[in-house]
Amino acid sequence: MTEVLLHDLSQQLQTLFELEQNYDAGFALGRHILRYWPRHLSTYVQLGQAALAVGLYTDAADLLRRALSTDPLAGELWAGLRQAASALGLEEEVNVARQHERDLRTSFGGPGASDMARATVAASVEDWPQALRYYYRAYAAAPERMDIALGTAATLYRVHHYESCLNISLTILEQLPYCLKANLLVVRCKLELGGAPEEMKPYLETAHSLDPDDIYAWRWFGDPTEPPPEPRATLPAWERGEKSVNQ
Questions:
Q1: What is the pLDDT of residue 224?
Q2: How far apart are CA 138 and CA 154, in angstroms?
Q3: Which band of pLDDT confidence, cut at 50, 70 and 90, is reported for residue 246?
Q4: Residue 51 to residues 72, 96, 171, 236, 240: CA-CA distances in angstroms?
Q5: What domains, with CATH codes, occur in the chain?
Q6: How crowded is the C-beta side of 193, counted as CA atoms within 13 Å?
Q7: Is the pTM of this model over 0.90?
Q8: pLDDT grade, residue 164 (50/70/90)?
Q9: pLDDT above 60: residue 30
Q10: Percent of the chain predicted with pLDDT > 90
C-alpha cells in the first residue's frame, strides 16, 4: 500500500472541513488518520471543531476533552467545549470550561482578571518574571488545575528553573499522561540536568505519538525565525470512498 505523509493528509483534512465543508469525507479521513496515529493531537482538534460546527455535540465534547487532556492550555478548545457542553445541558462543565476559556485568552486580561488570566497575558509577551509571579499565585490557589500547573512549569523552564519545572511536569503527567507539553518539558529539563538518554525515551515516545512531525514542539520551543521541521511521519494513503463512523 502506498505510504503518504501525515502532514499532507492533515492538510487535506483541513481543506475538507474549512474550504469544501465536506464533513462526511472529513470525518472518514480523520478516522483513517487515527487508525494509524491514534493519539494525533491535531486530528482530534480538527475533528472536535468540525463535530461542533455540524451540531454533533456529544462527539464534539468527547473529542475536545481528549484534545484538552493533551493540550490543556488551549483556550480555543475550552471555548469549543463550553459550546458543546451548553448544547448538551451540562451546566457544571459549561462553568468549568468558561472559566478556563477566560483564563487562557489574552483578551480577558484586563481589570478584574484572575491571576491565571494575568499570567497568560504576561506569558504571551514573554514577560516571564511577571508571568511566574501570577502563575505561582494561581497555582497556590488551585493546585488541582492542570492548565495552571502546566503554565507554571513552562514558565519555570523559561527562567531556567529546571528542577522545579521537572517536578511539576512529572506531577502533571500523573494526572494527564498524554499531556504533550509536560512530556516535552520533562525531556528538556532532563537534558539540561544531565539525564541519561534512557530516562527520556518514554517521554519522547509519548510526544512522538501525539506530535509526530514536531509541529507543536516547534511552535512552543522552536526558533520563530527558523522554518518548521520537515514532515516525516507517514501512513497508508486514504481512499476517498472509505466510510465515516457517522455514515
A1: 86
A2: 14
A3: very low
A4: 19, 21, 32, 24, 19
A5: 1-111 (1.25.40.10), 124-221 (1.25.40.10)
A6: 18
A7: yes
A8: very high
A9: yes
A10: 92
* pLDDT tens digit sequence for 190-204: 999 999 999 999 999
- Residues 16 and 4: their CA atoms lie apart, in Å, by 17
Strand, coil or helix: 172:
helix
- Whole-angstrom Cα distance, residue 116 to residue 54? 32
Question: In 3D, which of 136, 111, 133 has the Cα closest to residue 122?
Answer: 133
Query: What is the distance between the alpha carbons of residues 185 and 220, in angstroms, rounded to a whole number?
Result: 10
Phi, psi (deg, nearest 5) at residue 205: -65, -40
Tell me the angle at which helices 75-87 and 91-104 cross, rounded to the nearest 10 degrees.
160
- Cα 167 from Cα 164, distance rounded (Å): 5
CB atoms within 10 A of CB 88: 14
**Is the Cα dihedral 204, 207, 209, 214 positive or negative?**
negative
Dihedrals φ, ψ of 105, to 5°? -115, 130
Nearest alpha-carbon partner for 43 in 78, 11, 79: 11
Task: State which amino acid sits at residue 7.
Answer: H
- Strand locations in the chain (E): 3-5, 234-236
Q: What's the grid cell of residue 229?
A: 521541521
